[in-house]
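ingest -> validate -> predict -> emit
validate: passed (alphabet ok, no gaps, 450 aa)
predict: started
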Amino acid sequence: MAKVSFYGGAQEVTGSCFLFDSGNTKILIDCGLFQCPKFCDIRSEEPFPFNPAEIVALFVTHAHIDHTGRIPKLVREGFRGKIFSTHPTLELSELMLRDSLGVLAKEASADKRELLYREEDILRAMEMWKGVEYREKIAVGDTSIMLRDSGHVLGSAMVDILLKNGKRAVCTGDIGNPPTPLLNDPEEVRDADFLLVESTYGSRVHEDRAGRKLKLERFIEDIVRGGGVVMMPAFSLERTQELLFEINDLVEAGRIPRVPVFLDSPLAISATAVYKKYERYFNKEAHARIKSGDNLFNFPLLKMTRTTEESKRINEVPPPKIIIAGSGMSTGGRILHHERRYLSDPRNALLMVGYQAAGSLGRVLQDGADRVTIMGERIEVRARIETLSGYSAHPDREQLLDFIAKGRDRLEKVFAIQGEPAPALFLVQRVRDYLGIEAYAPAYGETHEL
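emit:
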């Protein structure tokens, strides 16, 4: 009997890790880092609840570190199978893992803890890693697997597993929130018997995406005309590239004042280069722009600050200015330096355009904290704090229900993954009530038969 076990991304957003066992073949989908203050460091360091040496293949849905961050640890602890993903995910994952190693090394040194993995573990993982195309069939033991476009970030994929009993299980990974400026819409899934579907925003409705650009324009105008600094904590993959695309458009159309814009993230700069390399994954509208001669990720007054010295010189540029920097939840990276410097001035603003996990500094600011501690310094929060959920790379509750409903004629079971308990359970109840399909929000360690 085939079964699936949930070892991360189970009533939580991070740590994505799902083990499929056909009875003869064990396949892992994702092996991500648990991300939250301190407690998750301990969880990420714990031994795997399965034997890595028994895993025949690992399929990676996309390059975000909460889906890839424990892959070198998996290799270190005995995994010797094959790793599969799309070509962009392969290249972006290597960037992300190398960047993550630097962060982990600093934290381990400060806390006097053992390092989760080392450079050689990344190298060994990359030697096992193969890039494949969407819809390319891959035989693994007694299963046949292919990747479908999930529209979340460049190269992101759903993992489609055809079991030997003829049943089909699809794990969505993270799904996109269409329409987006760059990527195709997520593929519809109408032929699955079992669906593991993300539930990050399973209980919320996003702002209208059609109006998001106007809101971004007005927000930037308000702060810039008041002589302030606009800070945008952005994830290095997709959100940064979308923001560059949108700001490029607003600048070229004369819809916002021409002010210095800094992309202050070495990782985001490197990721943007990968985006340029794999333009064939873009949607028709983006291809049309490229064909017309538009450089999607470059415009007047944009400065990419790769080195520490270049980053420090941003302080010398007088306001108004726009700073895009990681990390997206303000849990690390250069955005912390800018928040420490500019949050106390009411002329300035922090614009959040991505999910803020519970316990992150981003969530604390989003929830209206008057004071925060950044790098050991107590900071009064007087800057304007705003969230544009229309830029979320995840679907909301209506989009999720519609996505699931496409396959209602065949679906036997739906599992809500990668969502905190409230949104995951909310989505489960809606699937049961509205679609009449068995639905669950598995807890960590649970196993379900397929």
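The domain at 209-391 is CATH 3.40.50.10890 (Rossmann fold).
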